[in-house]
Amino acid sequence: MPRQRSDLAVQxxxxxxxxxxxxNLYTVSEVAKRLRVDTTTVRRWISIGVLDAVIxxxxxxxxxxxxxxxxxxxxxxxxxxxxN
Length: 84
Fold this sequence. Notes:
The protein is α+β, with helices and mostly antiparallel strands.
C-alpha cells in the first residue's frame, strides 16, 4: 500500500514561490559573508522588511530563508554611492 502524504505536505507543495528557472538563491550565511555583516543582522533585516526572502519549511530553532540574487543586487545598488 503506498504511503499517503499529509495535508500539510500537499499544501506546502501547492504554495507558489515566485522563482525564475535559473535564479540563484543564497543562504543567510552566504549573504552575511557577502555583505560583511553577522547572520543576526541579515535575519533582522529580513524580519523588519529591509531584505526580502523566501521562507522555507523548517524543523530547527531558526527559520530557514533563502535570498534571491536580484534582491541582494538591489540592496547593493541602493547602498552604493551615486558617484560610482
